[in-house]
Amino acid sequence: MKELTGVPVSKGIAMAKAFLFLEVDFPEIPRFHIEKERIDEEWARFLSAVDEVKEDVNSLRGVQKSVVAEGEDILNAHLLMLEDVEFHARIKEQLERNLQNIECTVWDVGREFYQKLITSPAPYLRERAVDISDITRQVLNALLNIKKRSLAGLTEDVIVVTRELSPSEAVAMNKRRVKALVMDAGSQTSHTAILAKAFEIPAVFGLSGVTKEVAQGDTLIVDGGAGVVVIKPTAKKIEKYHEIITKANEKKNEQNVSRDLPAETTDGSRVILNANIEFPEEVEQALRYGAEGIGLYRSEFLFLNAGYAGEEEQLRAYAYVLKAMEGKPVTIRTVDVGGDKIPSNFHTFEEKNPLLGLRAIRFSLAYPELFATQLRAILRASVFGVVKILFPMISGLAELEAALSMLEEAKKECRKKGQAFSNTIEVGSMIEIPSAAVIADILAEKSQFFSLGVNDLVQYTLAVDRNNEQVGYLSQPFHPAVIRLIKRTIDEAHSAGIKISMCGELAGDPRATAVLLGLGLDEFSMSASQIPLVKRSVRKANAEKCRALVKKILTCKTVKDVETMMKEEDGQS
Q1: pLDDT per residue as tens digits for the range 415-467
Q2: Helix (H, G, I), strand (E, B) or coil at 505
Q3: Which domains does the chain have, with CATH numbers?
Q4: Predicted confidence (pLDDT) per residue in 272-301, tens digit
Q5: Cβ–Cβ contacts within 10 Å for residue 430, how many?
Q6: Are 451 and 391 in contact (CB under 8 A)?
Q7: Residue 330: in which H helix or E strand, if any?
Q8: Distance CA 233, CA 211 (A)
Q9: Positions marked active-site
Q10: pLDDT at 188 over 80
Q11: Pairing between strand 228-231 and 2-5?
């Protein structure tokens, strides 16, 4: 028996035989000189290969729509990359300059784009390097007539062990048969990781050399939450994990029973539990866990791939979610890019302090055409359900008024074109900067709801980058300053007669539920899988006692004092 520890990517425990999925290395890419007269011929071969890959992607999209919806966004992104003007122009330019065959030209340009992204200071762009590699490989497969392997035809339950699984392979795999994913490479933010979570498949990545440790058919245990992979487990270890799996299944059944129960305290205080989603396909998972709405629909995925989505593609994505929610409210946050998330169209844009620079609503207002396109798409989608619009990173009244003015212009344009939209769309401000919390009373005059973005509120209040290993420990949501800002914002919202929600990790932390109830939070929005856990905490809590707890917490001077008081209260309940 051998136990390995890697990066925990997707929670859950699985036990099955290993299926080694090792991509066959390319044969040496042919490289030879061509005459000028052959440029058009080679270019035509490239376009034909691109069309072949597009056909494969569209075929897979059709299968995904009819069987499972997850992953369509990845395929859409790949279609956009295949059509990317910059990618095509670079290949044409290099073909004409170097006069070398199209296979080596595609290989060279693909590697050039890959290196540009993988060395980017922005984590999101580094992850997108995998997508470029994936597309390059697919085009080369078509040019070289290489038949790619697939996980779509699996006929028995397996744990896939691989060096790196491309997004397109992850989308295509037989999700009923793949019980877990184990990879040498990969991170928590890769497209494949996002898909594993959306598919609810346990996954552990970053296990350097695991493909050399595991043999085909070995029994494996994968604990995605702990990031542990057990190779050839002993009978005792298998028995232990069988017990864990049994308890997990019992807990899941219990959660299914409670799915339709209201999130109500023992003394009758009712709150709303919503889900956060990033991709449209995650809406099914949100409904399975009993979400009462979508409290945060992150729209960034439509802008961060090569060639951001146009109005019609955005309309389809928003409408998909609204239709699936069948009248339950969906809060769409306008694009929150900038910082470490730069659209590929803007990759030359650099800032010394990007998290303090042109991001979120500032970015949208700086690119009014892009912003107007998104607002029109949201407006047009509103006829398919109940939509709310949320403006991110509002720091003052001027930004909010500018955004509202853009929204009114978008409405005028829709009316001019005869495009219908709802007249009851609520518009809200995201409170994630201390200045917004301090002037919450002013922002409430022009907002119909608030949403607390606690992750950024902590970052900007405490001047801490939580991804910085040296100071990350200082990122503390229970810091007295953060709690006081949250309290002030909630109080001002209620004084103005508007509802306030919270999205992010704190809303989905059952330890924080009593405090948030005591602070008066109306709606919680979190990862869908956390909803049953938070609901259980709500239904065990007494709202009056929670308010008494918060009164005590507001007198605390340190994080330690707050956490001690929370533990004492939890021990008494």
Answers
A1: 999 999 999 999 999 999 999 999 999 999 999 999 999 989 999 999 987 66
A2: coil
A3: 2-23+150-234 (3.50.30.10), 36-144 (1.10.274.10), 267-542 (3.20.20.60)
A4: 999 999 888 789 889 989 999 999 999 987
A5: 27
A6: no
A7: strand 330-333
A8: 17
A9: 191, 503
A10: no
A11: antiparallel
